[in-house]
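for the recovery benchmark. tokens below, seq after
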């Protein structure tokens, strides 16, 4: 009988282990709030990408339709990011998580801060595109449109960076997050090239005209805002690395190629 006792204890331990494995935490309310927090943050992927697509399409079609709504929506999303950040801080205070749970909550708090700023950049992007289109009015603006369309690839790069950063966050995909960080260098390079191109246009004799000067100013701020969208996407991707490894990516040198 005594020889059977160890196996009985082992069975009991295995049973307890299987029961605990069904629920990540003892407090089901904590699990529910973590899932809610993750869902609330993940919602921003679709919302902000749709907002950026509206602005991108307006520039491609040279119309201001939908841009006023995009500006208002970006402001609404910014307030929503503040609300989700507040919810994340309440989770931190109520449950006082540790280890990986602490990193999970802290990462979402910082992501909300980046989403707040990113929404501000989207508002700036829509406003600058609207001003550029209005500058042209009913005129031909052939050269202006040709130069402005060179910014289109920057839209796509920023949008893809943000999409992949949010997907990496939702799925804890550190490899996808690392690719976002690498691609941000390409976005920065295109940003610098476009700024150089605008500087060359500004040196042309025709740049002294009012319409030409206006779109050049708006173009500079548009390119800068899109570059900042990429920066915030990279910051969100860095949070994925932080959750997975406790490593702050921005403080770690990139490995040699």
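predicted aa per position
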């Amino acid at each position: 009988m005594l020889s059977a006792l160890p196996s009985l204890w082992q069975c009991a331990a295995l049973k307890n282990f299987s029961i605990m494995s069904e629920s990540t935490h003892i407090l089901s309310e904590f699990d529910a709030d973590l899932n809610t927090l993750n869902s609330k943050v993940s919602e921003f992927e679709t919302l902000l990408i749709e907002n950026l697509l509206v602005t991108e399409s307006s520039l491609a079609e040279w119309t201001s339709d939908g841009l006023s709504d995009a500006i208002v929506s970006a402001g609404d999303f910014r307030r929503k990011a503040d609300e989700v950040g507040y919810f994340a801080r309440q989770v931190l205070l109520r449950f006082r998580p540790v280890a990986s749970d602490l990193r999970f909550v802290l990462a979402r708090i910082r992501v909300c801060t980046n989403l707040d700023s990113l929404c501000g950049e989207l508002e700036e992007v829509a406003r600058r595109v609207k001003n550029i289109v209005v500058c042209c009015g009913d005129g031909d603006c052939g050269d202006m449109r040709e130069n402005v369309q060179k910014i289109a690839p920057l839209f796509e790069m920023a949008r893809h960076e943000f999409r992949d950063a949010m997907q990496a966050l939702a799925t804890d995909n550190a490899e996808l997050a690392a690719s976002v960080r690498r691609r941000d260098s390409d976005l920065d390079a295109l940003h610098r090239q476009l700024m150089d191109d605008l500087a060359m246009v500004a040196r042309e004799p025709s740049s002294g005209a009012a319409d030409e000067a206006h779109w050049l100013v708006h173009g500079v701020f548009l390119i800068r805002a899109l570059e900042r969208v990429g920066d915030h996407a990279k910051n969100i991707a860095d949070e994925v690395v932080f959750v997975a490894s406790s490593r702050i990516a921005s403080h770690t040198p990139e490995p040699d190629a």
